[in-house]
Amino acid sequence: MAKKVITISREFGSGGRTIGKMVAEKLGYKFYDAEIIDRVIEKSGLSREIVEKYDEYATHKSSFLYSIAINSVNASTETYHGTSFASQVHIAQIKVINEIAEEGNCVIIGRGADYILRDRDDVLNVFVYADMKFKCDRVLSLYGETDKKIEDRIKDKDTKRRVFYRSFAMREWGVYQNYHMMLDSGTVGLDRCIDMICDVAK
Amino acid sequence: MAKKVITISREFGSGGRTIGKMVAEKLGYKFYDAEIIDRVIEKSGLSREIVEKYDEYATHKSSFLYSIAINSVNASTETYHGTSFASQVHIAQIKVINEIAEEGNCVIIGRGADYILRDRDDVLNVFVYADMKFKCDRVLSLYGETDKKIEDRIKDKDTKRRVFYRSFAMREWGVYQNYHMMLDSGTVGLDRCIDMICDVAK
Predict the structure, then answer these.
(1) B201: distance to nearest CA of chain A, Å?
(2) Which helix (H) or strand (E) holds B81?
(3) Inter-chain contact A187–B180, Cβ cutoff 8 Å?
(4) What is the pTM of this model?
(5) Phi then psi for B50, rounded to 5 degrees?
(6) Beta carbons within 8 Å of A186's beta carbon, 6+ residues apart
(7) Is the ipTM here above 0.95?
């Protein structure tokens, strides 16, 4: 069957976001990365500062929160009272991702969307990675130097994503059983990744 | 750069072997699966019965053996004396896989070839998997029923491959960093897997 929702999990610097954006363009799908943040702000009533702070960052209570969110998908923002800001962000994120998937024809970057949408059969889950040399070159050309070594920036970012995913989904990030395609963008090439994903989604 | 060697690791029942065979046909590459057994028999002087028994089955000493094999790639079969049959099979297998890769333009199925050839840059490593329903249907249609439940046959076979790989390579089977593409053949489809692999290898 055609895949109305494509989730892209990605190592930092692998080009996963760019691949997702191009896939969305080619298929005429909507693209959600930072766009999720806007919807979460709207839904939760929280400030941009708080939502950006906890976007894809782990809290100890995420797995517990997940069950709260699932059991109150249709509840109003009142449900959020009495939980931490981090929890409120994550609950709103789960709701927003479910809404987006329900609207269909979309590409969603990160945020455990593969896990949140695991019971749907119209979702294609993709994981994009690359070797460290490829990622360093890409991060350097896109974001430039900072005080911190590029390799450390990449490792730190991916560790945060891994910890977020684990605490949120209670399963491991990057384990093949959770994805339909896992592509080394450095070897496969970004253009080929885009073509392959579009081809499988159709 | 063009990939002269394609290794395909595969879950039992995923169609990885068939995909590899078709990729070899399309690219005009040689195909090695059971063909490796013939070469190992020739190289080691062991009986077919023994070689088939220890093909892709773990021995406790494999990681130790690996260093023996690496340090005696050009040694004659005399090197094998004094080691167990399992060890002799695995040492010969490492030598045969190195020889095959050196000859180039080939597809190699399983046997830790991705690990054995990890220092070459002309190798494309692919992992093929699928969900249990797809694998059960495929195993049933290809091999029929036996006394043992199909799902248990699949799990047992993959556990043996996983244990063999771990003892042999001292790393985990199916971990994405060891492959360039990992494809769920049930979702992607066998024909698309074949096309994608050929396209990337070129």
Answers:
(1) 9
(2) none
(3) yes
(4) 0.88
(5) -70, -45
(6) A14, A130, A131, A133, A134, A135
(7) no
